[in-house]
Design brief:
Elements: E1 16-22, H1 40-48, E2 50-56, H2 62-71, H3 75-78, H4 87-90, H5 97-103, E3 107-112, H6 146-161, E4 181-184, H7 192-208, E5 214-220, E6 227-230, H8 231-234, H9 263-266, H10 284-314, E7 321-327, E8 332-333, E9 339-340, H11 346-349, E10 350-351, E11 353-356, E12 366-372, H12 376-383, H13 398-402, E13 411-418, E14 430-437, E15 440-449, E16 454-465, H14 483-495
Parallel strand pairs: 1-5, 1-7, 2-12, 3-5, 4-6
Antiparallel strand pairs: 2-10, 2-11, 7-11, 8-9, 13-14, 14-15, 15-16
Helix pairs in contact: 1-10, 7-10
């Protein structure tokens, strides 16, 4: 059982919450079994908390995933399926996770990317979101090499000459993407994630002396593209030693709408002519560069997270602070001949999730239970002694923190809307609904009605057997011997969402 103590000058018994989000972080970490990547600080957190080996997001793209986690509701409830929809527009009266803590006596504050970049959601925070002087409103594409700066200035002058101000953000700063990677010998705080950590460690000192428990959310941008990190993190790896994807090919019998169109990567100057997955492949050198950049970016972010954990110890907050670390969705690094996220495959929906609760019985262990991001909201409520709102669609994971082997959910669910700039190669809009059981992943694709926002006609399906095909390389939904299984999984998927409770 958790045992919380009162911190000096903090006359409260409720635990603090340090809520760490990492953009595009898949479970590519030492604590998840990757023997090559350098992630000592996240590994340290895992050794002191409970690591969930089978955690899944509700949608493999930033805005829907974050809206779902922070509301405790699935995308079909939030009506947030894309990057441009504001949760407050679809659900104006929603009480988000940090907002609920604010309403229950917590000081809530954030820095970095918690909700999607363009939706700071002021109602969630006791104090205005912290922005850093000198960085644009959306600081993920910060560049410092001479080559990238020259390109950006050239493009800026072209926009000015054309009278195009669309790349100027609300702070009056230009936002222009250049190359997909950058390796420059600069201090950590030259880039945004290091700079925000400087502020975060100082804020923890201030929060130590507050008379309220806190919910402090810190959102890291790396390893989101572009893979820009100080040179010392690139130097941790030898590029030729980094293993490339085991399955750099499209799955057999895969329906065309199942794969993403690589538009995210093609938005950078050096990959604008990259082949889409059904057209061709990146060169081996390109694949090695990107994977090297991803690894360097993970290690850079890991170092910043280490500074937060160190500060908890230095300030004496550690024994009264729950730490939650999550990556908002997976990311393809050449798997399925593709890159980035935005599919219903395992590689996109499988996410890292670590929860460290002081004094919890199973700290230091791993849980193989199927869990979902909608479970985080009720979990933090129960751990903090707050009533769990009855509208939430997940369940508290506290029983797993007490017994990691406890029988749990038999299925978890994800979905992805392939529309707009992410359309299928055939030009149609589809919604894919996916169920993941202990053994199988089954996905159904439907033509989507963009006017009424509902699925129309069934289009196709996928079935992968994780016992024989853990990398999801062969879609076996069309095999005659799997007809009954497909029908069973179809029924489970339809029953779905709220009924995915422990047996």
């Amino acid at each position: 059982m958790a045992c919380f103590t009162n911190c000096r000058n903090q006359n409260v018994s409720k635990p603090n919450i340090l809520f760490i989000a990492v953009d595009d972080l898949r479970p590519e970490l030492g604590c998840y079994g990757n023997k090559y990547i350098k992630s000592p600080n996240i590994d340290r957190l895992a050794n002191e908390g409970v690591l969930f080996e089978n955690a899944f997001c509700q949608s493999a793209v930033c805005n829907p995933s974050r809206a779902s986690l922070l509301s405790g509701l699935r995308p079909d409830a939030t009506k947030v399926w894309d990057l441009k929809t504001d949760l407050r527009k679809t659900m104006p009266n929603i009480v988000t996770l940090p907002q609920y803590f604010k309403e229950n006596g917590y000081k809530t504050m954030c820095i970095g990317k918690i909700f999607h970049n363009i939706f700071p959601d002021s109602l969630s925070w006791s104090v205005p979101k912290i922005y850093i002087k000198g960085f644009p409103f959306d600081p993920d594409a910060g560049y410092f090499s001479d080559e990238n700066l020259a390109y950006i200035e050239k493009r800026k002058q072209q926009f000015i000459a054309a009278g195009d101000t669309s790349r100027i953000d609300r702070f009056g700063k230009w936002y222009i993407k250049a190359s997909a990677t950058e390796c420059v010998d600069v201090p950590d705080n030259t880039y945004y994630d290091g700079a925000q950590t400087d502020i975060a460690v100082e804020k923890l000192k201030e929060l130590k002396n507050d008379n309220k428990p806190f919910f402090f959310a810190i959102g890291y941008y790396r390893p989101h593209l572009p893979f820009n990190a100080p040179k010392k993190y690139w130097d941790l790896y030898k590029r030729d030693d980094i293993p490339l994807a085991k399955n750099p090919f499209l799955p057999e019998n895969m329906p065309i709408m199942a794969i993403n169109n690589l538009r995210e990567l093609k938005g950078y100057t050096d990959f604008k002519n990259a082949y889409r997955p059904w057209e061709g492949s990146l060169t081996e050198d390109e694949a090695k560069l990107l994977k090297h950049g991803y690894y360097a970016s993970v290690s850079y972010t890991d170092a910043q997270i280490g500074r937060l954990l160190d500060q908890l110890e230095k300030t004496g907050l550690k024994d009264n602070t729950i730490v939650v670390l999550w990556g908002d969705h997976g990311w393809k690094l050449g798997e399925h001949n593709s890159w980035c996220k935005m599919t219903n495959f395992e590689i996109d929906t499988h996410v890292p999730l670590i929860i460290r609760v002081p004094g919890m019985k199973e700290n230091g262990k791993k849980s193989r239970a199927l869990v979902e991001f909608v479970d985080i909201y009720p979990t933090l409520c129960e751990l903090s002694g707050l009533p769990i709102p009855n509208n939430l669609e997940g369940i508290s994971l506290k029983p797993l923190l007490v017994n990691v082997d406890k029988p749990w959910k038999t299925a978890v669910f994800s979905q992805f809307l392939r529309e707009g700039i992410w359309k299928s190669p055939d030009g149609n809009t589809y919604m894919g609904y996916s169920i993941r059981t202990e053994r199988y992943r089954y996905t159904e694709w439907y033509v989507w009605d963009n006017v009424n926002k509902v699925p129309l006609n069934y289009a196709d399906c996928e079935l992968y057997d994780h016992k024989t095909d853990p990398d999801e390389n062969i879609n076996i939904s069309g095999l005659a011997e799997n007809k009954d299984l497909v029908n069973i999984l179809h029924d489970k998927l339809k029953a779905g969402w709220k009924k995915a409770k422990p047996e």
